[in-house]
User: Which sequence fits this backbone?
């Protein structure tokens, strides 16, 4: 029995993207390292904002007039 359907070979899997160095992005562009903040104060954490961790009070606490 002959089949009237054409059989196509399975498509080849897409090549894996080339890995890039953590200091460079795709295309070789140099990425700036981001400074990660370890701990936010309670006020910034509750507001889910970035805390600058200035001592004795961060800018958000100074602007709000509260103790950091």
Assistant:
């Amino acid at each position: 029995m002959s089949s009237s359907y054409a059989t196509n070979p399975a498509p080849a899997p897409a090549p894996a993207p080339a890995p890039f160095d953590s200091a460079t992005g795709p295309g070789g562009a140099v990425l700036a390292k981001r400074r990660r903040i370890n701990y936010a104060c309670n006020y910034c954490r509750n507001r889910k904002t970035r805390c600058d961790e200035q001592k004795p009070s961060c800018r958000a606490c100074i602007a709000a007039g509260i103790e950091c």
About this structure: The CA atoms of residues 11 and 55 lie 60 Å apart. The chain is about 20% helix and 0% strand.
